[in-house]
Amino acid sequence: MEALDWTAKWADYTPEKIAITSYDANKSYTYSDLHTYANRLIHSFVKLQLEEGDRIAVLAEHSLEYIVLFVACQRMGLILVPLNYRLSINEIAKLIVDCTPSLFICNENHQEKAAQLPIENVTKLSLKTLSQFFYTDEKVPVKTFVIKEDNPLFIFYTSGTTGAPKGVIYTNKMLFWNSLNTSMQLGITFRDSTINTLPPYHTSGWNVFITPLLHKGAHIGMLEKFDAEKILCLLELNKTTLFMALPTMLLMMQKTPVFKNVSLKKLRYIISGGEKVASELVSFWKNEKNIYIRPGYGLTEAGPSITSLHHKMAELKPNSIGKPNFYLDLKIVNKKGDVVKAHEVGELCIRGNIVTPGYWNNSVRTSSKIKKGWLFTGDFAYTDQEGFLYMKGRKNDMYISGGENIYPQEIEEHLEQIKGIKKAVVLSVKDEKWGECGIAFVTTVNKGLSVLQIREELKANLVSFKHPKHLFILDEIPLTSLGKVSRKKLFKYFNTVTSQQ
Fold first, then answer.
1. Helix, strand, coil: what percent of the chain each, to 5?
2. What is the pLDDT of residues 147-187, one digit of tens each?
3. Which Pfam families is this protein grouped with (predicted)?
4. What residues contact 448, with CB distance under 8 A and at least 6 apart?
5. Domains located in the chain, CATH noted
6. 8 A C-beta contact, residue 246 and residue 273
7. For residue 349, is pLDDT > 50?
């Protein structure tokens, strides 16, 4: 039996155990089902003449069928390309051109969008047709494949906040070591269960809990779309032990009426990241539900399980992303490439088997980011005297104003300490006088709070050259589909307002 074929192994050990449950379709697959369905799908793919290295592009929400497709792709050496269905037709078309798929799979609700994509010469299947390949009693010959650790398994396209999206290659080796890192840090066993609401086009939608729990023979619940009330009910009813949620999602959950009526006693941890996890959020869940939130850090190019803050340190080390996980090396370097001392800010670099071999069709980007085995993340960070890590912001976020290096995250933290401010986001734009300047967007709990009052409060705690030149009070901070801040929408708002002045 193939060592990396976890599904086949668990189908042999615990064939009747439920592996995947869809709470949307009210259906479940055992490990035996998952193994059998994947073999049937492989039989159909062989008929379609798909071969190792071929790409399968998918425009669909996460589902039971998607998991079967993943298992079949891993066995055959096919590369799964989950497309972001929230992108425009033009944006998706560019990804299609870049990855040149041999097969395009689409959910019925995206057929109209698919009809306008450049896939005339590509084999096309609906998700429903795909499922018919394995929802059958037909006995098919079991074809044996060797799962090669260096074979690409996914291409994940980055969000493109600093330019055109880039396809990050994710290999079987990365999958294995990320799973091991995650399991070691969280003590995952076959008794655990999770509910995934994260989309498939992001590495977190596969590699935070889905693949590590498949590795451990545990249970994975699936929900296509995040619904705060529904999630709380399902976490309670299914005695879920592990859950991943962005800070925005947790805030939405704690504001629902359902929050008071659930105990969530079986929930050991909530893993959070993707943006800063506020210490107030950690304290709230600990005080209200006795649930630990474990902040961490990851990125598409590595892991995503890179650092983790132990739950007993979450309140003692506010705003920390913890320490490096197992089986990886980490360093923080300055512009010269020298390792910095504690409390000195530098670029975070990672080395290990969880690091991508590179970017699809982009050797220039690969060589600029990966040097002598080290991934230069583009994230600024520092450590305290005890080795706990803290993020300072993206390298591309830092701006130079009047010759001074300015980190937006520092300004955001000062703004959020002002009474009445709920959330702050700081970006930068070109400035004729200073080269660059800051623009701040805040939301408030006090409608009477003015821009002038906010500026007065900043004076007492932040040196003047770090003050944002522009400051806007918004009703809400716009978010992406993953719950992260939408910089594109904020820049659009800024450009619209300033053009009218």
1. 35, 30, 40
2. 999 999 999 998 644 457 799 999 999 999 999 999 999 99
3. AMP-binding (PF00501), AMP-binding_C (PF13193)
4. none
5. 397-499 (3.30.300.30)
6. yes
7. yes
